[in-house]
Structure to design on (1746 residues):
């Protein structure tokens, strides 16, 4: 298993399927990306494009009919040895989770257990992985609450989750995730449920903590604005597949895939979409809607909605091709775009 | 005030209090005023819980208001009896956020639209079928979708049906409560375009509720910024976006992420959380998070200052932001 | 917390007041003159009149209600016509078998249901789950008297391990009395375990899909701990409700089971009271049983307050 | 944000097709149908009249002449089981109808009109405080034993259970945008109640009704067993068992067959209800 | 034969009262006969024999004066000694409260204490059944202390019997313990009479109302004695931990006709019913095996002095549907429902009713069954408007006058001149042998006028532990004289 020294996580052609009696949902069907140490990789895509399934596959937390069909998930732990998480047994995951890879979720309201105080829940994380006394775990939990900038941390330690606001809870989740200083943090839409002002606080916090703890972040989102704010690298997903990966500046400057291009064009932008007299120009919009993942066309999944489509698009799944220095794209016409 | 013409809808001093479970009072909307001119769209923005939905629904009398006036076409809707209100129902319509629960899953599309047509006293018979087909084509659906059930449509299509239902009674005024928030970005643009077109085509007036600032900037002529049930600032979009005079609006605009990494700003996000509407701060409700707060802010509810050109702001230090 | 408790107490009081009213109404809908019915055909008009007076039947309905309430407040449930002792005493004399029967059945039911429910939720869709679910449904379909008869036939008559009926004679030791309860308790316990199993499974399925369970797993916690500490504790809240509900259902079950096993409990007292037309006893039993149900619900509400920090605002 | 086009596809209108896709529910449906058909056609199918006495042939084991043997008066157990099914199912069905009439009304009123919610809910709570058999016994004792009174009593017993379910669903539906849309259109409240609310509570109602059907059959059997149910000359499974238990030794079939009939009917109703619930209304699993 | 031991006796239920004057229920009699005693009781051959009386009464020539000598040295459970004052007060209470006492009251002029140890009863007309009435254990003429005689209902359960009441937990048990100061008669036990020996320390009567539970309890050996088992359970009881006790014959089931009102006020209808019924099938359905019943139209079975076959021709074991049809046509019957009032307290009543229904319908009757609780039945049968036939049973009573139909006022209200002629002659005659002949006339009139239909004879089944000995088979089992063996 080869993995460049500076890469902490490399997902290679991952396929995670949900097999039912009649149909197979290919939720993740050929996802490939690399995450460099200390960097933030943003995964963007519309609802149902397989972002969460990808992150759960990495954590080994897939729910029942879901299973990794093929592919590799190479992960470099603290000691420098590389593991293929796609072949991990549940028991092996246990030592890894929390300690090496931690995760925060979209819904801060429900991701904390309502029956335990936040102090308990952070302390539990520490006690699971390190031989600490109760008092010590509590002290460390308090430290973490301070790290995530919860005001008056000492008095919030014994609060129950329902006594906190969404933003505070998300901070607690982050404190818990970082309690054992993992080297990789997976954040699955951590700000989607929050208000813009709180979202800004959390993004800010994550950036600062990254500088402080040095962890790499896999940041799942569907908001391109957030991507622009936080990511070093961006992976764009569509219908379970990676359609493009590029450094964030490159991606926003030039999109190699028609889908990425459409995605950027269809969010309203006053400078672009409003005339000087206030009249509106029609927004660019991608026609049609995402195909159901149980019945994907054999070729490019975006083809039916694509403005650049040619007959060849329907024939075979386009491969991921390198188009720029650091950009890969899954489009046979990337070079023409 | 310098009205060009009398607005179609003018809301004054609207407030709504809810009784919460344990007998405490939620001040969902307090003393909100704004007006909607004929053929224009007013955007209502604010963080969640700021009372946008409540304001929109009270105007339509879907919730009974606790106080204030809503003068629509010269009549105060709040002073009407439930029966008198009936006559106005078809002139005021609403579009919802959730495309899944806004259509009765057990009714076919023609029945859903038919219900609206009944309300408009549209005669039964073959004309009705044509009208349903017409409505469907107005929102970009095919007439043979009429016999389907809602679950057979995608989210975007359902939202179009919701719009068709609102249009069926040929209303003058529509409250659109976050109509695109639940949609995928790629579909969102389709619906926004449709709404923009229809507004022009039928000369509709619209109260457009959203929390996405860029959408409001794109679609709305005027904007009302709410925080914790109160209006912080309102005025023509261009003015508010370009030259906001309220620290909250400024903070909102500054913190909204823009999809452009080159414009990544080093900025200080607002500190703290939104206070509970159960006991809002005294004086200016925003003062607890306001970077410009001074002790005086706690004492009085800031009076609404009229800055000309229909631009109003509720901040005692608005002059310093000029 | 105190406030919440007081709130529940008030709710309980209102429900109890309604219960009392309902019982009053049920007894008053009895067609005909209860006094005449009670005294039988040989009674003279004078006897009936005096009984009417003693029962307060000559007063107007609202007055009767007030008297009845007054009696209740003094703990007076009336006097049994047949047994000629106060109803409260009659019920109290019969309380022991019913009390222990209910407790044992509940213990048996939960001892079966909780592990089975939790495991079948955890192993959802497996053979174990299917077997457990089907068995639970089967158990819920068996009339308790039928199961009781089968048990009696097999374990008491054929194998002779238990007594078929009764509660031991006078002076029977506690152990002896409890021995009489084994079969009825298993009958009722098995049948009511069905409901709790299904509920536990549903509640667990619900929680197992909750985000915080995923959070717990993402911490690197062992499965057992995730299930018990994080999932089960949350599922316990709805499960508590159904256990309370089962306690009430058990009283229904006890009526039939006690009759089958000849246990001198409240259940068989109720049946005899119906057969003997002992209206005050029926009335008193209804009231006491419903009151207990309300009380159990109240206790469960209080337990919620202990278990669930969200409700103690 | 998570709303996908796919999530909306979960509801298909064709109920039968969907039931058929679940084997246990299908088995339940088939058995229920068979039981209903057999009971309805009992007079045609039954080889003997249910009350036809032939004392000389009493207590005979199952044979070709008497598929389920004969009872203590020489009556044909098979014929009696079939005819009892009519009573048991009839009572169950009538109870469901009666309980639905009360329960749906109460539930809709409590759920839809805020001002009636508290009083009606408290009333429901109070009625639920009485264990089913106990309340039924008391009511039958008060009203006198007869099929009608058993139905009334059990109907009153189960109505609050239905009312609860209807209320809970109504509370949810009341707040749904499509109800609000109808109000915005000025649709009259009774029409909203029927067209939008009632129509959408049918799923949980149907599920609950199935369980109540099952429970009513069990409860009726219990009442008959105790001898406080329907008049004993109308054969029911409960009375058959209560008589049969005297002959458990010599003629176990008298008790076995009606017992099995109850178990089979109730079990299949429950399977059906469970299946219905699984795809009609998963939330319902939580309340009773 | 060792003293000591405790037995549990399963009874058919909780007695409504422990005052045997207040009730005619067999159950009350069975239990209370251990507590209280009467002046006379029945010997093995069902003749009256003295119990608290020292000797048989001296009856005056005209049959109107009974002089009864009392035993001395008999103590009540409260320690006081029985005197004639107690006896007079008790008998007066009996005449006031007990249904049989009321019956006797009609013929009794006075009851007076002649001296401390003698009581004199004066009648206004000769009345042969008096001694039997005084001997019965239900609605019984028990002797209680004078100071308790005013109690109604009885509150102090003080008698002179061999056992006294220790504790009563309703529906659980009635506990009797040996009365150590009991003064037994001398000599040998003789039926209910003679010496009463107290071996057992304690007798507990445990109500087990459910017959099946009683059977199971018997099979499991839970009780020393289990009363009133369904006869079908004979095989099970025989193979269990107990031994069956069969009392053959025990009594007779009877269909009582309402002669006062409704269909059955027409004697032709009653005759049609008499012809239609098929006792053989009815008894078979009710009692399962021929070992437990006898098809017998005579009102007393063989073995009783009263037995006679006189006039029993209309009693047809298989019924006579054709004859019934003819009688019915003659009566001009037009399909009004014949209401049969019955209960399931005694399952065999109900089974007989079901078979009867089948035969009556075959004969052309429309039958309406009113199945009610026993309590309701006892209530409803008092109302002539409610029924045409009700079903009951009775043990063979030692004195025919005690049968319900003999009284004009008992439900059925049979009161015709022919009846009065036969019955009064029977009651007034005190010579036993002449009375036997007079009873033939009574049976004749019963068959002529059909005030009731006797279905047949049936046996009773009880079960007792093999360790329990000394129990005499009896319709009213008693447990003095009984003892436990190892
Ligand atoms: N347990 C499951 N069984 C079947 N299909 C599943 C399951 N979980 C997820 N899927 C399917 O996998 C696809 C990808 O889901 P995923 O949750 O990864 O999307 P996502 O990109 O995270 O979307 P969102 O933005 O809504 O979170 C979806 O179409 C979903 O329907
Ligand atoms: N029926 C109600 N009972 C009690 N409180 C309510 C009710 N409806 C709304 N509220 C409260 O009123 C406040 C305003 O709610 P509203 O839904 O109007 O906010 P919003 O601005 O639309 O938020 P969002 O962006 O989340 O839709 C909130 O604090 C909410 O909790
Ligand atoms: Mg996701
Ligand atoms: Mg809203
Ligand atoms: Ni102005």
């Amino acid at each position: 298993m080869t993995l460049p020294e500076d890469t902490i996580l490399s997902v290679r052609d991952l396929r995670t399927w949900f097999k039912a009696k009649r149909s197979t949902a290919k939720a993740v069907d050929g996802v490939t990306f690399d995450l460099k140490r200390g960097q933030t990789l943003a995964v963007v895509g519309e609802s149902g494009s397989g972002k969460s399934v990808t992150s759960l596959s990495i954590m080994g937390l897939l729910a029942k009919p879901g299973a990794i069909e093929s592919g590799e998930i190479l992960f470099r732990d603290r000691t420098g040895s590389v593991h293929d998480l796609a072949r991990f047994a549940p028991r092996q995951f246990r030592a890894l989770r929390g300690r090496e890879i931690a995760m925060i979720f979209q819904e801060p309201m429900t991701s904390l257990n309502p029956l335990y105080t936040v102090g308990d829940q952070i302390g539990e994380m520490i006690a699971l992985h390190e031989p600490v006394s109760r008092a010590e775990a509590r002290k460390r939990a308090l430290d973490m609450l301070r790290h995530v900038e919860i005001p008056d941390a000492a008095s919030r330690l014994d609060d129950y989750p329902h006594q906190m606001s969404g933003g505070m809870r998300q901070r607690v989740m982050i404190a818990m995730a970082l309690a054992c200083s993992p080297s990789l943090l997976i954040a699955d839409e951590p700000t989607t449920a929050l208000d813009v002002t709180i979202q800004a606080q959390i993004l800010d916090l994550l950036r600062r903590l990254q500088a402080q703890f040095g962890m790499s972040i896999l940041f799942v989102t569907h908001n391109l604005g957030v991507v622009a704010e936080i990511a070093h690298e961006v992976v764009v997903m569509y219908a379970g597949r990676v359609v493009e990966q590029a450094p964030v500046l490159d991606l926003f400057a030039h999109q190699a895939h028609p889908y990425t291009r459409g995605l950027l064009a269809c969010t309203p932008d006053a400078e672009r979409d409003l005339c000087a007299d206030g009249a509106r120009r029609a927004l660019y919009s991608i026609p049609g809607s995402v195909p159901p993942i149980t019945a994907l066309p054999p070729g490019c999944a975006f083809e039916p909605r694509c403005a650049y489509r040619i007959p060849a698009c329907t024939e075979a799944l386009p491969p991921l091709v390198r188009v720029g220095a650091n950009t890969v794209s899954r489009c046979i016409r990337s070079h023409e775009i | 005030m310098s009205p060009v013409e009398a607005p179609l809808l003018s809301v004054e001093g609207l407030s709504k209090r809810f009784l919460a479970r344990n007998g405490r009072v939620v001040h969902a909307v307090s003393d909100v005023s704004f007006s909607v001119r004929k053929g224009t769209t007013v955007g209502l923005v604010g963080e969640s819980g700021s009372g946008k939905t409540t304001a929109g629904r009270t105007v339509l009398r879907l919730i009974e208001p606790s106080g204030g006036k809503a003068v629509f076409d010269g009549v105060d809707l709040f002073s009407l009896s439930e029966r008198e209100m009936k006559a106005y129902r078809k002139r005021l319509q609403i579009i919802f956020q959730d495309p899944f629960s806004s259509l009765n899953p057990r009714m076919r599309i023609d029945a859903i639209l038919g219900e609206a047509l009944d309300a408009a006293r549209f005669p039964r018979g073959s004309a009705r079928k044509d009208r349903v087909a017409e409505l469907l084509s107005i929102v970009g659906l095919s007439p043979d979708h009429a016999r389907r059930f809602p679950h057979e449509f995608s989210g975007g299509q359902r939202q179009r049906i919701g719009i068709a239902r609102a249009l069926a009674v040929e209303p003058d005024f529509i409250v659109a409560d976050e109509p695109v928030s639940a949609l995928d970005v790629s579909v969102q643009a389709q619906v926004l375009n449709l709404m923009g077109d229809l507004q022009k085509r039928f000369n509709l007036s619209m109260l457009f509720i959203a929390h996405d600032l860029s959408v409001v900037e794109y679609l709305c002529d005027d904007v009302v910024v709410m925080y914790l049930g109160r209006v912080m600032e309102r005025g023509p979009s261009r003015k508010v976006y370009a030259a906001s005079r309220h620290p909250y609006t400024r903070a909102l605009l500054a913190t909204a992420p823009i999809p452009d990494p080159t414009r990544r700003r080093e900025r200080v996000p607002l500190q703290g959380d939104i206070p509970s509407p159960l006991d809002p701060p005294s004086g200016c409700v925003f003062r607890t998070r306001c970077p410009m707060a001074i002790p005086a802010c706690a004492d009085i509810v800031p009076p609404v200052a009229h800055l000309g050109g229909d631009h109003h702001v509720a901040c005692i230090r608005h002059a310093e932001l000029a | 917390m105190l406030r919440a408790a007081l709130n529940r107490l008030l709710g309980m009081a209102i429900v109890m007041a309604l219960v009392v009213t309902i019982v009053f109404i049920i007894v008053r809908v009895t067609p005909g003159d209860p006094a005449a019915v009670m005294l039988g055909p040989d009674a003279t008009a004078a006897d009936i009149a005096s009984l009417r007076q003693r029962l307060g039947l000559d007063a107007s309905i609202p007055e009767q209600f007030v008297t009845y309430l007054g009696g209740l407040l003094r703990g007076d449930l009336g006097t049994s016509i047949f047994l000629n002792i106060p109803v409260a005493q009659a019920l109290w004399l019969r309380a022991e078998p019913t009390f222990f029967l209910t407790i044992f059945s509940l213990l048996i039911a939960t001892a079966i249901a909780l592990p089975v429910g939790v495991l079948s939720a955890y192993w959802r869709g497996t053979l174990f789950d299917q077997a457990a679910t089907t068995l639970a449904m089967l158990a819920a379909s068996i009339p308790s008297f039928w199961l009781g008869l089968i048990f009696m036939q097999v374990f008491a008559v054929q194998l002779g391990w238990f007594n078929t009926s009764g509660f031991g004679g006078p002076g029977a030791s506690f152990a002896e009395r409890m021995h009489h309860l084994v079969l009825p308790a298993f009958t009722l316990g098995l049948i009511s375990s069905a409901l709790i199993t299904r509920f536990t499974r549903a509640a667990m399925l619900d929680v197992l899909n909750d985000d915080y369970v995923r959070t717990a797993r993402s911490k690197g916690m062992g499965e057992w701990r995730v299930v018990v500490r994080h999932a089960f504790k949350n599922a316990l809240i709805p499960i508590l409700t159904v256990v309370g509900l089962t306690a009430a259902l058990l009283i229904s079950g006890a009526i039939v089971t006690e009759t089958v096993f000849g246990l001198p409990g409240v259940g068989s007292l109720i049946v005899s009271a119906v057969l003997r037309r002992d209206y005050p006893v029926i009335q008193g039993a209804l009231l006491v049983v419903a009151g207990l149900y309300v009380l159990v619900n109240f206790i469960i509400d209080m337990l919620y307050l202990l278990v669930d920090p969200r409700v103690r605002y | 944000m998570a709303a996908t086009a796919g999530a909306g596809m979960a509801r298909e209108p064709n109920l039968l097709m969907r039931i058929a896709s679940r084997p246990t529910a299908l088995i339940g449906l088939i058995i229920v149908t068979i039981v209903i058909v057999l009971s309805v056609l009992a007079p045609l199918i039954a080889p003997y009249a249910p009350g036809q006495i032939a004392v000389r042939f009493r207590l005979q084991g199952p044979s070709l002449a008497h598929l389920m043997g004969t009872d203590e008066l020489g009556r044909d157990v098979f014929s009696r089981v079939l005819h009892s099914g009519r009573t048991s199912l009839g009572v169950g069905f009538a109870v469901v109808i009666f309980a639905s009439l009360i329960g749906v009304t109460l539930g809709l009123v409590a759920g839809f009109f805020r001002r009636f919610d508290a009083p009606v809910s408290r009333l429901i709570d109070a009625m639920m405080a009485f264990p089913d058999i106990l309340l039924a016994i008391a009511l039958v004792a008060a009203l006198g034993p007869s099929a009608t009174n058993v139905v009334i009593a059990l109907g009153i017993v189960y109505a609050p259970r239905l009312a609860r379910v209807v209320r809970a669903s109504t509370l949810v539906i009341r707040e749904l945008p499509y109800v609000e849309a109808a109000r915005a259109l000025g649709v009259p409240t009774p029409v909203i109640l029927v067209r939008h609310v009632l129509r959408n509570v049918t799923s949980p109602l149907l599920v609950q009704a199935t369980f109540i059907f099952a429970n009513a059959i069990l409860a009726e059997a219990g009442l008959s067993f105790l001898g406080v149910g329907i008049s004993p000359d109308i054969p029911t499974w409960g009375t058959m068992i209560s008589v049969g238990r005297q002959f458990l030794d010599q003629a176990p079939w008298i008790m076995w067959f009606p017992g099995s009939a109850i178990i089979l009917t109730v079990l299949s109703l429950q399977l059906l209800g469970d299946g219905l619930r699984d795809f009609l209304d998963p939330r319902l699993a939580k309340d009773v | 034969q060792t003293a000591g031991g405790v037995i549990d006796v399963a009874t058919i239920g909780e007695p409504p009262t422990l005052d045997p004057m207040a009730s005619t229920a067999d159950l009350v009699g069975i239990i209370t006969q251990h507590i209280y005693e009467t002046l006379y009781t029945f010997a093995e051959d069902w003749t009256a024999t003295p119990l608290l009386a020292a000797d048989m009464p001296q009856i005056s020539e005209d049959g109107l004066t009974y002089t009864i000598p009392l035993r001395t040295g008999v103590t009540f459970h409260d320690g006081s000694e029985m005197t004639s004052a107690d006896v007079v007060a008790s008998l007066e209470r009996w005449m006031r409260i007990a249904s049989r006492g009321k019956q006797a009251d009609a013929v009794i002029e006075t009851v007076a204490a002649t001296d401390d140890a003698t009581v004199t009863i004066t009648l206004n007309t000769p009345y042969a059944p008096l001694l039997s009435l005084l001997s019965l254990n239900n609605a019984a003429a028990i002797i209680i202390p004078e100071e308790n005689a005013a109690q109604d209902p009885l509150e102090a359960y003080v008698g002179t019997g061999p056992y006294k009441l220790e504790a009563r937990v309703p529906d659980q048990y009635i506990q009797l313990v040996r009365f150590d100061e009991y003064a037994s008669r001398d000599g040998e036990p003789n039926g209910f009479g003679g010496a009463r020996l107290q071996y057992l320390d304690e007798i507990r009567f445990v109500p087990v109302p459910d017959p099946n539970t009683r059977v199971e309890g018997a099979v499991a050996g839970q009780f020393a004695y289990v009363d009133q088992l369904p006869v079908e359970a004979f095989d099970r009881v025989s193979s269990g931990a107990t031994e069956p006790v069969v009392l053959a014959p025990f009594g007779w089931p009877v269909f009582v006709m309402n002669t006062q009102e409704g269909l059955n006020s027409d004697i032709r209808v009653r005759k049609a019913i008499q012809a239609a019924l098929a006792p053989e099938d009815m008894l078979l359905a009710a009692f399962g095996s021929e070992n437990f019943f006898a098809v017998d139209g005579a009102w007393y079975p063989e073995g009783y002095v009263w037995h006679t076959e006189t006039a029993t021709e209309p009693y047809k074991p298989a019924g006579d549907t054709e004859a019934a049809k003819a009688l019915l046509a003659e009566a001009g019957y037009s399909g009004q429902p014949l209401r049969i009032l019955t209960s399931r307290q005694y399952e065999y009543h109900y089974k007989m009713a079901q078979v009867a229904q089948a035969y009556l319908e075959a004969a052309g009757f429309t039958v309406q069954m009113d199945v009610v609780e026993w309590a309701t039945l006892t209530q409803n049968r008092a109302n002539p408007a409610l029924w045409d036939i009700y079903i009951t049973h009775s043990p063979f009573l030692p004195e025919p006058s005690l049968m319900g139909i003999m009284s004009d006022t008992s439900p059925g209200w049979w009161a015709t001149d022919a009846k009065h002629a036969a019955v009064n002659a029977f009651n007034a005659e005190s010579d036993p042998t002449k009375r036997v002949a007079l009873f033939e006339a009574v049976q004749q009139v019963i068959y002529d006028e059909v005030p009731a239909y006797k279905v047949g004879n049936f046996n009773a089944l009880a079960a007792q532990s093999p360790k329990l000995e000394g129990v005499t088979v009896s319709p009213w089992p008693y447990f003095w004289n009984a003892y436990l063996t190892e």
About this structure: Residues 95 and 162 of chain A are 30 Å apart (CA to CA). The first strand of chain A starts at residue 7 and ends at 19. Chains A and E do not touch (no CB pair under 8 Å).
